[in-house]
Amino acid sequence: xxxxxxxxxxxxxxxxxxxxxxEIVETVFDTIKKTLIDGETIKISGFGTFTVRKKGSxxxxxxxxxxxxxxxxxxxxxxxxxDYLKELVEKT
Length: 92
Prior knowledge:
Helices cover 45% and strands 29% of the residues.
């Protein structure tokens, strides 16, 4: 499913003009992105939790050359599905 598909679903279900549905979807995603960039957690009831986790530097290995390379520290986004969502997915 793409963002355009989500806009189409909002358009069909809510009955707003397509441009307003697009604006709503963009606003929701922009808010999620900004919140994660700020390092905050997002909890969506019945769906799951997005968190930003800091990973330290470590030594990795190039699988082709076997050369050791330092992997720099970084921040990554993680998602943990709610028990309700896991249950729904498991039933299908």
